């Protein structure tokens, strides 16, 4: 430090003689710095005499800090004697600027010259790092160096960080001169930029003490000056920008002068005197949107954002990004606050307006209200359609007839197949007896005992000789069944007709069930739309709770390990009673649904889609299966309808395949009767003819016997599979029957 005790002899021309890469260091004799954010404003001034003033304004008010040259010397241990006569900062090597010689000029880098108060403006490092590398470096030419004391440069750079809704602009100017330490030093402070109708004040300070002050403003018509000693009161005469000067005359007659900006500003209106739009977080589709608006403002002079501080009443609700002629307002959370502008003196300039941040703006809330009303209407229309189908006489008839058809088909099929038990008609033979009689006749033909058979037949009474002969030869049972084979067709036709009726009734149910399914899909869509709109409405109202879910049915308790539950006996199917009561008429709401406004009661819990009572229904749910063994849980709804449709369709296909066997058996019976007639005629003719006809009939009877047995086997399988179907079909129809009452109750009580 010893070599720096005395002022350096400095010759700017010598810089041109330096080699590229050589460096010279300088100290800052003056600093004029200011900055502002949405909640903070500061000015920082360093005068040539070493006095530094910092004026800060925040939510607590305005306070001013003064650091004199003596204060700075004490803080940094710099002596005060004739060897350290220069500005104290001259002796702090860490704060020096650097000039590096280049081949064509020099690069001046002002490392710590600005930004000490940036952190108080709540600007993050991510943003400041975008700015300062650009503004702190100045490129000079050889011509600039020759005219050293005329060097004056300004750098401007901007940066932003969207995550924190912040933006910063830094403008840095440098001016080179060698200070004259013998020249009087004068400083100027105070608020010289103020709003129209307000007053400003300038305060000067000069050294050495004991001199006089003279204030002036340029242009002179901008404001009037009433000076009294070292202070002056300023009153605006018109709007605009200018400069206030103060000249200080020391006791020895030497003169020093300084200045600072002066302005008179007016702010007339925000948003053309219209209320500010609400700032919304969500749109009508419930999607999150950029919660910001850009509001124009009218002010004089131009670029008034440089003369005003725009402040919000609550900095936790909104963030302000002012620019020339407009302000971008970003919402941070919901609530109401205010927006106003203040001048350099802290006075409010222009009107104070209200800013509201909401989840959804008024237009969105109104649109959702109309959408909700439309959704309720759609639900009611869908319910009416569902009720119309479920409550129609055609649907009830098809539903009840299918249960009856199932019972009838089971009974008729069993009548022609099961050998034991009585039958409703004496003309109906079971397949086993017909097969037994046919097999007996085939045995007779195959045994070669036709002569004996013919002799016995000759002894028989007149009439159907072959029938009588079979009766005599094989006994009463075989003879009667062989003689009545044609009569068996009556029972088989009844089975075929019962199967056809089942198919027709199943088709009618499937038709209505498809209509119910379509109506339920419409209901479901309308209900989902309502829930979606109601969810958006809750978001707009700030309600984040989810709607209450219906309680799930309790599962039956499993039996304990040491207890074996007794098997339950199946309940025999019963024919449904015809309906005599008319379902209750749907009550139409007398009032329109109302969407609550903010502050009203909590929004209603959205209704749940009607489901009715869940039932176990056994049907063939896979196309390759038949019968009613596989059971599924089915409830009222599109999914339940779809499952039920598949089961009934598969069951109908099973019955249709079985009816093919029935039809083939019926044809076999007709052919057996035809063979019987042929043999009767031959037996009445002569033994030779009978023998020939009986031999010819054997292959045909063999085939007919196989077809008869095939029907018997198919019938036994069908009866076993179809055994539980009447009860299962009734359970399925009960699910469809619940469509009417459940839907009525849901619409009436939920909407």
Offer a few descriptive terms.
751 residues, alpha+beta, Immunoglobulin-like, four-stranded antiparallel beta sheet, rod-shaped, disordered N terminus
Describe this structure in words.
This protein has helices at 69-76, 125-135, 142-146, 362-390, 393-417, 431-447, 450-459, 465-474, 476-483, 488-540, 638-685, 687-722, 725-750, and strands at residues 23-26, 31-36, 41-46, 52-58, 61-67, 97-101, 105-109, 137-141, 152-161, 166-175, 185-191, 193-195, 199-207, 212-218, 223-228, 231-236, 240-249, 255-270, 279-280, 292-300, 309-312, 318-323, 326-331, 335-342, 348-358, 615-618, 631-634. Strands 12, 14, 17, 18, 20, 22 and 23 form a 7-stranded mixed β-sheet that branches. By secondary structure, it is α+β, with helices and mostly antiparallel strands. It is rod-shaped and about 175 Å long. A hairpin with a 4-residue loop joins strand 2 (31-36) and strand 3. Residues 1-8, 420-427, 459-463 and 544-609 have low confidence and may be disordered. The two termini are 89 Å apart.
